[in-house]
Design brief:
The complex is a heterodimer.
Chain A (H helix, E strand, L loop, with lengths): L1 H22 L9 E5 L7 E2 L1 H8 L13 E5 L4 H9 L3 H14 L6 E3 L2 H10 L3 E6 L8 E5 L1
Parallel strand pairs in A: 2-6, 3-4, 3-5
Antiparallel strand pairs in A: 1-5, 1-6
Chain B lengths: L1 H18 L4 E4 L2 E16 L13 E14 L4 E12 L8 E12 L2 E9 L35 E12 L5 E11 L6 H7 L5 E16 L5 E16 L27 E20 L2 E18 L3 E5 L2 E13 L2 E12 L19 E12 L4 E11 L22 E12 L1
Antiparallel strand pairs in B: 1-2, 2-3, 2-18, 3-4, 4-5, 5-6, 6-7, 7-8, 8-9, 9-10, 10-11, 11-12, 12-13, 12-14, 14-15, 15-16, 16-17, 17-18
Chain lengths: 147, 422
């Protein structure tokens, strides 16, 4: 009887975790990160799944029809962004990009090291999409709400 | 003059960039990415020589490198080229190969077209098998990814259709379907396996088609996939008596022989070769698990001047691996790799040594330490404990040319490999 109860409890926890995985939208802790894009991007919001697929290079067009290209910034929120939005470690992401380039199936996104640099680049580059810390100055770019 | 200027500008951009691991440069307003890798290995085994190296004496003849350039021409069009060269024992022998040279046009996220020389998507690692820095291992599991038979599936001259389809809450599906001709590599196990049993091939060609579907599941870090590869090809052997130094092996006793004309083999038709593959890859935190199963059906219809018969070279293989990132600079891992021969050549022929248990399989238990010395440099230390030698017609590492007295059933081997990438 006790064993059945324990099993039932374990299954409930498993179902809860699974539903959390399936229906999760905005990643927890994502409030410290802002998703930005060039003003040519028509969308006002993106889903977490879209952010993930854009940065993993399986998506080049957002649901609204805007063509985008991912930009990497190795700033203070880099590892947080990679873990929260892409579900990888920084090393795992770099291995992923390298596997694209050496198999001839992709390229490594343009990379910057500070929020200031990436904001400047995104502001002048059609379709560019990046992330910065929530406190960064983001003049000349639009912020995409993550739903 | 103009081209000299472009080369000079490119060189001036690349050289300082390499020092800092930055490899992008612009020519005519377009950004070109340049990346590369190189590795040097040392292999020492107790008795059997492996992968055409004299490993029982200790061998440094394990060097390879690759260099590529990629240009995003427009939003939808990308072109790329990669050169690969290796000297692994008698494999490669420093003859550079065009590894890929493609134009990729992405019409939609769910439909792109890639044409030219394209890397083959087959299982977890076929398209990236040379890039050892991507993985924990110094040697990939040789049951599924034999280094000597790389050219069998590595690339094709043809066309790919590919795309990715989001599955809402269920992850995403990506696919590749392809068709083309298999590039020829005369310094590979495909040639040596026949040459070592007395049939030196003059040429080997094949058409291939296949597909790969991989599901990035809703479970974070879990990817599942299936692949298939079909080939129909022809090997042309030197006709009877040429070259004179090569012994002619008569058709095996007991096989179905069709009398035709002369004593020696002159051609062989692959037909068909079929590989089916299922694989899984899971990463959680610092732990990485992977596994793959492959079934190869391969028949060679050998046609001599006087006779012909069909030889069965089918096999199956699987591996399971686990690795753990113990520290930023240290990864530890192990894998179990198993290769099974359906029908050893010796079963058919009195001209080979009688088959033993060892002829039916190669089992490899491997353990690895990987040290990431810097962002670009790594060093791997790997131990292999192998049981079995496999079939001389499908050697998977053990060749008569470096084991003239035969292959002993047990092999213990250490591989040390240093790699660099940018």
């Amino acid at each position: 009887m006790e064993k059945a109860k324990t099993m039932k409890r374990a299954l409930s926890v498993f179902a809860l975790v699974l539903s959390g995985l399936v229906f999760a939208t905005r990643p927890a802790g994502a409030g410290e990160i802002r998703i930005i894009a060039n003003r040519s991007v028509g969308a006002a919001s993106v889903s977490a799944e879209e952010v993930k697929s854009v940065f993993l290079e399986t998506r080049t067009v957002l649901k609204g029809g805007s063509r985008v290209q991912p930009i990497i910034v190795k700033s203070s929120v880099y590892s947080q962004f990679v873990e929260l939005y892409l579900g990888k470690t920084v090393e795992g992401l770099e291995t992923y990009y390298r596997s694209l380039i050496f198999s001839g199936t992709g390229s490594i996104p343009k990379t910057f090291s500070t929020d200031v640099e990436v904001v400047a680049y995104v502001s002048r580059t059609r379709g560019a999409m990046a992330y910065v810390s929530a406190s960064a100055q983001a003049a000349g770019v639009k912020t995409l709400e993550v739903k | 003059m103009r081209s000299n200027g472009i080369v000079l500008r490119a060189a001036m951009s690349i050289i300082p960039g390499l020092l800092y691991g930055q490899t992008d440069f612009s020519v005519a307003g377009r950004e070109i990415q340049v990346h590369g890798f190189a590795s040097q290995g040392f292999v020492y085994s107790n008795q059997n020589n492996f992968l055409t190296m004299n490993t029982s004496q200790g061998s440094f003849a394990m060097t390879d490198f690759g260099l590529n350039a990629t240009l995003q021409v427009t939003d939808k069009l990308r072109v790329g080229v990669q050169i690969y060269d290796r000297n692994v024992g008698q494999l490669g022998e420093w003859h550079p190969l065009l590894d890929y040279a493609y134009a990729d046009y992405r019409l939609k996220d769910w439909l792109g077209v890639r044409a030219g020389r394209v890397k083959t998507q087959l299982g977890l690692y076929t398209s990236t098998q040379d890039a050892d820095f991507l993985r924990t291992w110094a040697l990939l599991p040789q049951s599924v990814y034999p280094t000597d038979l790389r050219s069998m599936t590595i690339a094709h001259d043809g066309i790919d259709l590919y795309g990715a389809i989001p599955l809402r809450g269920a992850g995403s599906l990506s696919y590749t379907a392809y068709a083309g001709a298999r590039p020829d590599d005369k310094r590979s196990g495909l040639y040596y396996q026949f040459a070592d049993v007395g049939w030196p091939p003059k040429g080997s060609s094949a058409w291939m088609a296949g597909a790969d579907v991989r599901w990035t599941t809703f479970v974070p870090g879990l990817m599942l996939g299936i692949s298939a590869n079909f080939q129909k090809g022809a090997d042309e052997f030197y006709p009877s008596g040429t070259p004179a130094s090569q012994p002619v092996v008569p058709p095996p006793a007991g096989s179905q022989v069709y009398p035709l004309g002369g004593p020696g083999p002159s051609s062989g038709v692959y037909g068909p070769y079929r590989a089916t593959d299922a694989y899984a890859d899971y990463t959680t935190g610092r732990l990485h698990l992977a596994g793959e199963y492959r079934r190869n059906f391969r028949f060679v219809d050998v046609r001599g001047m006087m006779w012909r018969y069909v030889r069965n070279l089918s096999d199956r293989a699987w591996f399971a691996s686990a690795s753990y990132k113990a520290a930023k600079w240290l990864e530890v891992g192990a894998y179990e790799s198993r290769y099974y021969v359906d029908h050893p050549a010796a079963l058919d022929s009195p001209y080979f040594e009688p088959p033993t248990d060892s002829s039916y399989h190669i089992f490899d238990h491997a353990a690895t330490l990987r040290f990431d010395l810097t962002h670009s440099w790594n060093l791997k230390l790997e131990g292999h404990f192998m049981d079995g030698s496999g079939d001389p017609f499908a050697p998977h590492g053990f060749y008569k040319r470096v084991n003239p007295d035969g292959v002993k059933p047990k092999t213990t081997m250490v591989v040390i490999r240093a790699g660099w990438t940018f």
